[in-house]
Amino acid sequence: MVTAQSSNGATINYAIAGGNINDAFGIERSTGRIYSAGTIDYELLQEYHLWIEARQDGNTPATAFAKVMIKIEDTNDNSPVFSSTQYDIDVMENRGFGTSIYTVSATDADSGVNGNINYILSGTDAQYFKVTSSGQIRTYTTIDREKVDKYSFLVIATDQVRCLFQLMRFQYI
């Protein structure tokens, strides 16, 4: 809220005179209370610099301006996005425990902790693999093609609130 005072007690009306990109904000004419009036997205613009006009009408009209800076805080409003919608990978058999076989990649448009991504594996075949915090998938056992020739599981990318699933299929040759 912005406030202005008149030396003679005249009524003061407020308006946004500049800096209101995409009409993101409004102001109550009689009180000076600033409110959000449109879509505000931290990923598009992190701060606004509004010029507020205080106008005194009447016998002695006067106008004053003030600059108001509004900093936008990021919310967790974006889900992680994988670089591919499905992964089909061929891997040589007899890879030992802990062998890196692939690295998945996801991004999140949110900032700071809201954009931190963790990976999780899910599904029956996921028990044979582990995923690191960087998306590197490793074997959790020695893989033998004669016993099982294909594995399929989900890779989940989560940012603590939102998550995205991608199917992974491995065929051992």
From TrEMBL:
Record's signal peptide: none
Entries under CDD domains matching the protein: Cadherin_repeat (cd11304)
Cadherin domain segment(s): 2-82, 83-160
SMART domains from the UniProt entry: CA
Principal place of residence: membrane
InterPro entries (UniProt xref): Cadherin-like_dom, Cadherin-like_sf, Cadherin_CS
Superkingdom as given in the UniProt entry: Eukaryota
Assigned keywords, A-Z: Calcium, Membrane, Repeat, Signal, Transmembrane, Transmembrane helix
Cellular localisation: Membrane
GO cellular component assignments: plasma membrane
Entries under SUPFAM superfamilies matching the protein: Cadherin-like
Gene3D superfamilies to which the protein is assigned, alphabetical: Cadherins
Bilayer topology term: Single-pass membrane protein
GO biological process: homophilic cell adhesion via plasma membrane adhesion molecules
UniProt keyword Heme present: no
Pfam families membership: Cadherin (PF00028)
One GO MF term: calcium ion binding
PANTHER family assigned to the protein according to its UniProt record, in alphabetical order: FAT ATYPICAL CADHERIN-RELATED (PTHR24026), PROTOCADHERIN FAT 4 (PTHR24026:SF126)
Name the record gives this protein: Cadherin domain-containing protein
Species in which this protein is naturally found: Dreissena polymorpha (Zebra mussel)
Lineage summary: Eukaryota, Metazoa, Spiralia, Lophotrochozoa, Mollusca
